[in-house]
Amino acid sequence: MVQGGDYRQWPFLTPEEFELVCAFFDQKYVRAKLGPTRKIFKIRLRRTLTTGSCYIEILRLLQLPEETDDLSLAFGKLNSGHDGLGVDIDMLTAAEDADQVSGCFFQMSEKALRPQLQNQHGGAIDDGALPQYSLHSHQPYATYEVHLHPTYNMPTLWFTLHDLPMSEPTFDLESVYRYLVPPEYKSRLRAAGFTGGISAAPHPVTDVPAFFIHPCQTKEAMESFDCKMANYLMIWLGLVGGCVGLWVPPEMAAEEAEEA
């Protein structure tokens, strides 16, 4: 049974409801025991400077450098954020200090958060074939953002690539398929075309060209779930994010289970 009573018109969201579901999602991230995952997977609740509307920003390293110094630089980049027209709504206080770091957990996090890269023929690329980065170089990462679509009144997932090797353009659909789309989703996304698949348009905040997952089919997918506001974005990202390599850490769901 759908929790339609929590919403004005399930599964659509008003701007006020979208702010609530974003706040719940950010709270789950802050309170979850993520360990080193918090270093390579950053979630921020942000607000635009122009309209004051809120949105979720997620930063994810595309690959982990082997050198400790390179890893520290990459972590620093995700901690410091990147250029944009938004400001952080910072709820992250002692959460990072509370996380326990272990080598075993670190290896598990790496496998869970980074999809295996594929070559142009669909085969896996060996780690040794990946570009190597020096102490002073940047690390490739993806920025995902969740904005409320003004027409569909549903969350919409926007994403961009950053700091790829010089020979690979960041605003390029083939780069998206190479770095973000898991093999099991590639044929389905290509067949979907622009409606229901990967589209491109000016970013809703920066107006810079960016990619997004078209929200036209999200309503039907969400209607089959029993979903309270506290879990709305968790379920929505579970439906939408995987096709472009975005999975919510399971510890964010485990945090709620521990309270029950």
TrEMBL record:
Pfam families: Autophagy_act_C (PF03987)
Keyword Transport found: yes
InterPro entries the record matches: Atg3/Atg10
Gene3D superfamilies per the UniProt record, alphabetical: 3.30.1460.50
Family designation: Belongs to the ATG10 family.
PANTHER family referenced in this protein's UniProt entry, alphabetically: UBIQUITIN-LIKE-CONJUGATING ENZYME ATG10
Protein name: Ubiquitin-like-conjugating enzyme ATG10
Native species: Lachnellula occidentalis
